[in-house]
User: What shape does this take?
Amino acid sequence: MLKKRIGILVLMMTAILFIAACSSDTDSEEVYTLQAGHSLPDDHPYHLGLLEMAENVEERTDGRVVIEVFPFSELGAERELTEGMTLGTVDLVVSSTAPVTNFVPELAVLDAPFIFNDRESAVEILEGEIGDELFAALEEQGIIGMSWAENGYRHITNSTHPIEKPEDLNGVKIRTQENEIHLAAFEEMGAQPTPMAWTEALTALQQGVVDAQENPAIVADQYSLFEANQQYMTLTGHVYSVAIYMMSKQTHDELPEDLREIVLEEGQRIGAVERDMIIEMEKESIETLKEQGMEIIEEVDVAPFQEAVSPVYELVEHQELLNKILEAQK
Ligand code: PAF
Assistant: This one.
């Protein structure tokens, strides 16, 4: 009798262990599909970076994390994508910092014109303590900053005349990003800026609602802005357009720890890869724009532009951060 009872007990224990093993197997087999969005074409480094990240993540997780990449603002323009991450409706995003500033005001320092001496100084600052401080501010808004990327230097294009000095911008209707500092900077230079999402900008240029826009050469090239009345480009390089590879904190918290680590690690390495691609493609884009008949004003005396926009530094909310960035480059 006792033997029989022990036998039943052993059988029951085995069944429990078997069920537990099966259910934990099921968990480990679960596939997590993450959606990644950005605003540019599928041959832009933003996209190529996300594809490389997706491939590495899928390989390292044995297919348990699949990243689907959506270009051309298919999941929303940059401001909407940022909001989506705070709400947990978008998992991964790469975006320029200008619209993200509307959610994380600390980032406004990065969009102050001519704030960085050069690209190398920018990268050193972003990858150092100041960058960590900015990522901490981002995290408070429900967004994990994974790595710093870029879209290149912003230059002015327009449909009417070569712009060689700030006065040439007088009365020029220019589309800017949805960023108060950019808006104020163009007002200081006498232009008439209208902030709008990139999704609306192309039509505004084509229809002559605005005469001008400012973006890196790669954007002018990939969107064939020479076919949208943009005949002149002045290499002002007024803003080093910082971008960030980001993940929604909600997505981060919902992923099992082992998978989360892999996604984070791959996200952390992709910014530098993306930046190298931009540097290469930027040169090619300037050549393409010339071949397409755009007049490129290359020899620009930037000092008068710097002088004209200097009052906007006072508008930056986080003055202590601004000063730290300036100090770090002395
Ligand atoms: O001008 C903008 O809105 C941005 O530079 C763009 C083109 C969406 C890329 O980040």
Notes: Residues 39-40, 78, 96, 151, 177, 198, 215, 219, 241 surround pantoate (CB under 6 Å). The chain has a mean pLDDT of 93.
